[in-house]
Amino acid sequence: MTFKALACDYDGTLASHDRIGEEALAALVRARAAGLRLILVTGRTFFELIRVCEPLDLFDAVVAENGGVLYFPTNGVMRDQAPPPPPRLLAELDRRGVPFEAGRVVVGTWRSEEAHVRRTLADLGVSMQIVYNRAALMLLPPGVSKGVGVGQAIRALGLSFHDVLGLGDAENDLDFFEACGWTACPINAVPELKDRADWIFPGDDGTSIGEAITGPILGGLLPVARSRRHRVALGWSAETAEEVAIPERGVNVLIQGDPLSGKSWLAGVLIERLLGRRYAVVVIDPEGDYHVLAPLPGVSWTEVGDREGWGRALERFDGDPQACVVLDLSTLPQERKVELMESGLALLRARRQRRGMPHWVVLDEAHYSLHRDGVADQALGIEDKGFCLVTYRASRLRESVVKATDVFLFASTTAAEELDFLRPLLDGLSADAASIVSTLPNLPLGEFLLVRTESAGARVVTFLAAPRLTSHVRHLRKYAEGRLPDERCFLFRTPLPHAGRPARGDGREPRRVPARGDPGRRGGAALPRGARGLLPLAPRRVRRPRARPAAREDRAAVGPGRDPRPPARHRAADRGRHDARGRPRREDPRWPMRRSRVCSGAAWRRAETVRHS
Predict the structure, then answer these.
(1) Which one, 188, 497, 557, 564, has least CB within 10 Å?
(2) Helix or strand or coil: residue 67?
(3) Sign of the torsion formed by the C-alpha atoms of 42, 174, 155 and 379
(4) Crossing angle of helices 114-124/87-95, nearest 10°?
(5) What is the per-residue DSSP string for 244-307?
(6) Cα–Cα distance between 162 and 153 in angstroms, integer?
(7) How far apart are CA 367 and CA 325, in angstroms?
């Protein structure tokens, strides 16, 4: 994995004896040349930092005074994040003989003076928070911290916090670590920080940080996929109810299963969970299956037909580092889809290498575009990780694509061709490949099999998928807007958002009928999953009852264009007293005054008045 920014603490991390050593400085220059943004983080006062840190212009942003001051050397902008210390506090500390150093926002002293400082704050009624930094102690206004300052610097640089590696060593770096997606510290860091860090590197000064930057960090060798903190949960184990999760970064995922087996449902679970973790996701949707994600916060749906439209859709990530963009290609012919995918994926790869976003690329129906003659490897960039490929024909995928997969998620697979393809593939991953292949055809709906390659051997677990926030209807947009021959037409049982386009081969609008009873059943027989809400086209004409005109004395009250029947709430409340056309039943003794053939709204109100009087 390649990070896009380094946020480095100064004292004890970059600097030894107030100065950045030659090894650390050379490593920072190499990181800057490799395209990484550099953020300097320190608890020192800004004026003291200028005195001890000469290469300040090397950094893109400086967070000084423990988050109290932001400085951007490129344009020379400085922003105080809080007011200066109260003068009466400084005067009282001086009167009581407490040594201190005042900055633009922070007041620094020694930890041994904590008791005197607390008494002074209590006597004056001054609200200041106390922050520890090894042997030092800092006073800051409430709400000011390294974490808040680093978060503001990350947003100002247009980065996602997931792409920032934080490096620190002391207690005041704990809050700073929360603002970074990945964290590391030297082996001499305080125990609280070592428990929180994702990676601990050897050494205790600027030399060790220089070796860490030039080695594992720039070399992409950090064990991102093995981090215990960076996991996205997909469901629960079918046997033990233990949560089943996969790495959030640094892996490629392949979801394989038969049609109607739930593989697209599982892909939706993964997308929703990644959005909850504030990752940037792009969904390439060849069949119109992911339009249902559009109502979620941060999700934008776009129908693309050319490379320019693809590029405009990806510009969403420039303003929102945690957005989700759904690219709908369902209206294009198959040949045009593959051509657009190749040019679009090349554009997407360049953006990911430059900005790091989107973090995940979800490609549905991957066998249509990643076969031997499909999208080229150099355009796809599967080695960059962060791909989720969804398919029901994994056997058609290129060998290079399958070899780059780290996590396999299997739904029910019954096709003999696919099982024959998976058998030798799983032989190289697990010693129990035969039992895995025999299990796949018998997986029930909603249950999946995870196979993950690890250094200690493959991990295999059967799990139940987590629930989704959005519904899923298979090929909804293709069914709603595609052109079909007469013998393959069907009806929509409920209104759909695509009511303005024909779904028949002759261009006529399909008839829509209201749903009755269980929406997943028709005539007592269950419809297959993914086809709920759809009915085959009836050979005979659908008869619709026509409303009879209102009585003469009620027409004026009803008015032109009004429905002469009583309001729906009255019809529901008095169901059984009227027939299907809204007329009162003559045998009902409560309605002797009714003469009109249709119960109008005005007459209904008059009747109600008489009945209740």
Answers:
(1) 497
(2) helix
(3) positive
(4) 130
(5) EEEESSS--EEEE--TTSSHHHHHHHHHHHHHHTT--EEEEESSS--GGGTTSTTEEEEE--SH
(6) 14
(7) 21
Of 5-9, 77-81, 133-137, the one with minimum mean pLDDT is 133-137
Which pTM was predicted? 0.76
Let me know: does 266 contact 391? Beta carbons within 8 Å: no
Other beta carbons within 10 angstroms of residue 513's beta carbon come to 13
Contact 153, 74 (CB under 8 A): no
Range list of H helices, 34-145: 46-52, 87-95, 114-124
- Reference 85, options 102, 99, 68; nearest CA is 102
Beta bridge partners of 284: 327, 363
Q: Look at the block and give the residue holding tokens 């005539």.
A: 523
Task: State how far the Cα of 586 lies from the Cα of 37, in Å rounded to an integer.
Answer: 83
Strands 534-536 and 490-492 turn out to be antiparallel
Whole-number CA gyration radius for the chain: 33
Q: What is the mean pLDDT of residues 141-162?
A: 93
What's the CA gap between 167 and 27, in Å, rounded? 14
Find all residues with CB under 8 Å of 423, minimum gap 6, and list them.
433, 434, 437
Give the span between the Cα atoms of 371 and 353, in whole angstroms.
Answer: 24
Q: List beta partners, residue 184.
A: 167, 199
Residue type, 157: L
Q: Each residue of 73-111: b (16+ CB within 10 Å) or e?
A: beeeeeeebbeebeeebeebbeeeebebebbbbbbbbee
* Residue 377: both structure tokens together: 């490897």
CA–CA distance from 341 to each of 18, 335, 476 (Å)? 53, 10, 21
User: Rounded to the nearest 5°, which phi and psi values hold at 157?
Assistant: -85, 0
- Rounded to the nearest 10 degrees, the angle between the axes of helix 307-314 and helix 334-355 is 40
Maximum Cα–Cα distance across the chain:
103
Smallest CA-to-CA distance from 182 within 64, 42, 7 is with: 7
Rounded CA gap, 191 and 58, in Å? 31
Q: Measure the CA–CA gap between 459 and 168, rounded to whole angstroms.
A: 34
* Distance, CA of 49 to CA of 64 (rounded, Å): 8
Residue labelled with tokens 């963009």: 325
Q: Sorting pLDDT into bands at 50, 70 and 90, what band is 499?
A: very low
Q: Is the dihedral of CA 415, 417, 420, 426 positive or negative?
A: negative
Alpha-carbon span 166 to 173, nearest angstrom? 9
DSSP character at residue 82: S
DSSP for 561-579?
T---SPPHHHHHHTTTSB-
pLDDT tens-digit readout, 331-390: 899 889 999 999 999 999 999 998 889 999 999 999 999 999 899 999 999 999 999 999
Q: Please check whether residue 574 is in contact with residue 532, taking contact to mean a CB–CB distance below 8 angstroms.
A: no
- Collapse the DSSP code of 129 into the 3-class scheme (helix H, G, I; strand E, B; otherwise coil) and give the result: strand
CA-CA distance, 246 to 251, in Å (whole number)? 9
Band of pLDDT at residue 507, cut at 50, 70 and 90: very low
The C-alpha atoms of residue 594 and residue 610 are separated, in whole angstroms, by 11
What phi and psi values does residue 192 have, to the nearest 5 degrees?
-60, -35
